[in-house]
Amino acid sequence: MSGGVLRLTGLTRVHGKGSAPALADFSLEVPAGACMAILGPSGSGKSTVLRLTAGLDEPTAGSVHLDGADLAGVLPERRGMAMVFQRPLLFPHLSVRDNVAFADRVRGVPRRTARRRAEEFLGLVQLDGFGDRPARALSGGQEQRVALARALAAEPRVLLLDEPFSALDARLREEMHELLADLRMRLDPTILLVTHDHAEAGALADGVAVLDRGRLLQAGPMRELYARPASLAVSRLLGGRTEVAGVVRDGRHESPLGSLDLPTPVPDGPAVLVVRHEAVQVTTAADPATDAVGTVVRARRRGMRTLVTVEVPGDGGTAAVDAELEPGQEVPTGRTVGLRLPVEGRWAVPVDGVAGEPVAGAPRA
């Protein structure tokens, strides 16, 4: 099995006359063998993209091409795609083996051959020996593995994943992430993954397309979107927290943090400085390499790490900067600290590019 090139062009879906589009002019290309994540909040149009791609809904406008072939009017089962939903949707009256063999049986494959192949795909998802079990006797994580095996048994050119791991606990979700990475190395499918979790998108996908209210905000490699968000909406959906209002003059962002160089040119004018909390380094106030000095006003534990908020007084007001401490590093509230803001970790979003979005001087809770 190998993946195909998926191209979505101008996809639009309007559910009823006079209603706002669930999806508007969405275009995206997924190279063969790549995993592309579609990221956005609930109601942003993520699942609509998958349903239109799979042929479960008809687009109001736009097209879906697979390896250059237009799929308009092609039935879902003939598109060379398979879909895994948030709920496994197994047949409870069938065994695990016969659930996985279902795709082959629908295609007319003899029962014995279909069952033999089912065992092979159960092995791929690490469920050897589970074939005789009834589907209703499985745990949630096992059910999702069976659903994935059933999808793979159809030998799809494109695998569509609609938040399939969101109902699992953290440990099972991580196991499924590792399993999917292993399957990609073995089978090389093209994957379109829908998720609302930017960490999951970062762990699984080669690229990400950020959706909000039915519109594509930005698409590209995850690292690029983390470091160079096109808008505050993109920064926030990717977990960005620090937003400092100011102005760009001659390639520098001026704000209560001072005058800071930017890594690449940005047009002069009002702009919001965004810095990933993972990039900020907390040091001593006396450190000569500090870019700003402020007071720790809040600390929140995140497993082995701690997220702190530092308030920095300056000309025109106070800026709030979030920083993630190194494992084992402790900084109590009330302490004066220095902040290093690496040049490559800074980015300024022009206010013209964030129309209608509030500009925060402090990160949101």
UniProtKB/TrEMBL annotation:
Coiled coil: none
SUPFAM superfamilies: MOP-like (SSF50331), P-loop containing nucleoside triphosphate hydrolases (SSF52540)
An example Gene Ontology molecular-function term: ATP binding
Protein name: ABC transporter ATP-binding protein
Alphabetized UniProt keyword annotations: ATP-binding, Nucleotide-binding, Transport
PANTHER family: SPERMIDINE/PUTRESCINE IMPORT ATP-BINDING PROTEIN POTA (PTHR42781), SPERMIDINE_PUTRESCINE IMPORT ATP-BINDING PROTEIN POTA (PTHR42781:SF4)
Domain ABC transporter: 6-238
SMART domains per UniProt: AAA
PROSITE patterns: ABC_TRANSPORTER_2
Matching Pfam families: ABC_tran (PF00005)
Highest taxon listed in the record's lineage: Bacteria
Taxonomic classification: Bacteria, Bacillati, Actinomycetota, Actinomycetes, Geodermatophilales
